[in-house]
Amino acid sequence: MVTIDPKSIPTAQLQGYLQSSVGPRPIAFASTIDSNGVPNLSPFSFFNVFSANPPILVFSPARRVRDNTTKHTLQNAEATREVVINVVNYDMVQQTSLSSTEYPEGVNEFLKSGFTPIPSTIVKPYRVKESPVQFECKVTQIIALGTEGGAGNLILCEVVKLHIDESILDSNGAIDQHKIDLVSRLGGNWYSRSNEGLFEVEKPLNTLGIGVDAIPGFIRESAYFDGNDLGKLGNIEKIPTEEEITIFVKENFDVKAVLSADDMDKKFQKAKEYLVNGKAVDAWKLLLAKK
């Protein structure tokens, strides 16, 4: 057995061991606003429920390991003392991952991730319409656990209103665990789906993903592509150039055949196949290719 003194290894390595060992961890998809009312949206896997009376949720935005800076969610919670915690199910996992991209202050992650903001009834931060359960919360306490990179900040939240999508309820009005289809975080790129088991989600780029808002309407509005597909398409650094598209078409006979058929359904079906196989850039090239 390997024995490790936590102080003897780099924080990033220690964090990897912790996140790969303690799991699966539920995901708090936290919606906040800054003092000027600008929305922010970000997921956190250091999260759980700790009390029912009063109803208390706790999540922890850690200081960034690389430069010891704090996240916008923490800054907003400190300034406004309000947050909405949305739960994450499988249908929204790719968009949720995209929202964790480190966009500059003031960028609206609702737009970038393609989620729908809806007004809360008590607090000011917006709820995520696509989330099956949404908790409006008042921040009761923030506990800093350290001052160095990697240190957590426990945000204690009292639930003042909760919203549950009726489609996930059983005949007795309880939440059906199959219908809610929750996902949770493990180490690296790994997630766990409550209904099926392990799966991977490619981490957002170190460079900024273009976002769902940059996807042309004919793709965004197509019935072929769900939220997870849009999340994958939004997590690329740049849209392929005409030259890159031309080369791609010339080198792929099956793509030529799809384009020659002049059938948009076949084109979308093939692009969907690329997305399922983790080839988002190829999907983009096909979608933007002309006959």
Automatic annotation (TrEMBL):
<dbReference type="GO" id="GO:0010181">
    <property type="term" value="F:FMN binding"/>
</dbReference>
<feature type="domain" description="Flavin reductase like">
    <location>
        <begin position="22"/>
        <end position="174"/>
    </location>
</feature>
<dbReference type="InterPro" id="IPR012349">
    <property type="entry name" value="Split_barrel_FMN-bd"/>
</dbReference>
<dbReference type="GO" id="GO:0016646">
    <property type="term" value="F:oxidoreductase activity, acting on the CH-NH group of donors, NAD or NADP as acceptor"/>
</dbReference>
<dbReference type="InterPro" id="IPR002563">
    <property type="entry name" value="Flavin_Rdtase-like_dom"/>
</dbReference>
<keyword id="KW-0285">Flavoprotein</keyword>
<keyword id="KW-0288">FMN</keyword>
<dbReference type="Pfam" id="PF01613">
    <property type="entry name" value="Flavin_Reduct"/>
</dbReference>
<comment type="similarity">
    <text>Belongs to the flavoredoxin family.</text>
</comment>
<protein>
    <submittedName>
        <fullName>Flavin reductase like domain protein</fullName>
    </submittedName>
</protein>
